[in-house]
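Researcher: Predict the fold of 1,5-anhydro-D-fructose reductase.
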Amino acid sequence: MTVRWGVVGPGRIAEMVVRDFTHVPDAEVVAVASRSAERAGAFASRHGIGRTHTGYRAILDDPEVDVLYIATPHPQHRAVALAAIEAGKAIMVEKAFTVSSVATREIAAASRRTGVFAMEAMWTRFFPAVVRLRELLADGAIGEVRSVQADLGVRNLTDAGDRYLAPELGGGALFDLAVYPISFAQMVLGEPSVIAATGALGPTGVDLEESILLGWPDGRSAALQASLRCAMPGSARVIGTDGWIEVPPRFHHPDRIELHRHGAEPEEIVLPATGGGYAHEIAEVTARVAAGEQESPVMPLADTIAVQDVMAAVADQLGMIPEEGPATL
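Model: Structure tokens for 1,5-anhydro-D-fructose reductase follow.
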């Protein structure tokens, strides 16, 4: 069966994601929705999409759409996701899932209540190199895992009108960059019991950079950094009692990993992604929806909630007040 997709929010990320549908034979993009008819039409023309909708409500009523890929600004995810679930549309929501723990829990609760599939579009977890990393950790390749280190930063010196500095659009390093190292650490180590953060806010009240230390009751830890003002390597490292695994830059979309076992030569494992790297998460959602499943075991809602809780704690410690959008369209 072909799973029919609709795109909500035809922006920069959606442009890249849609190109990878050519690599997923059981998935097809059949509709796109935007608040701008012109923007929806131009996007549809560029990508050969058959139908356009002006406004988000219209695509919810489209009987030919099975799944919605939600790529609007972060604060708008909540309303679109909740409305989509109530309309019976499966959803893949671009990271960060929302800008608050409350909104993320609302969406997860709605999905579980209705049985409608929902997943965060955290593409990193589906890359073949990351899948292999998780297999190696499960097999004890580096012994007992004790810590994670990860950073992601860009030198994005923009004016005050840029989206990355706009609180009403979910601006700041936290929701666009820090979400990656936080999710990576949570994937490896689980939900932390200690969260400590320091950083800097810009004149618009969004975070420009942060350093985050996560801790677990047994002493495991994660040291994470993100920045909109400083370029960083974008590397990650998982350290265990018998070695470590290096994820070279950029760790959130890697094509290889390096396994370092104590007493052995380093082993490079090369596993390129398909297409632009988005095909793997598209294939995951397509397969789960076709099978009538409610969640992905690779990116379950419980993990998304745990990551969102860390981001909420970081925002609070930095003094940032995220501007969550309304709960209804």
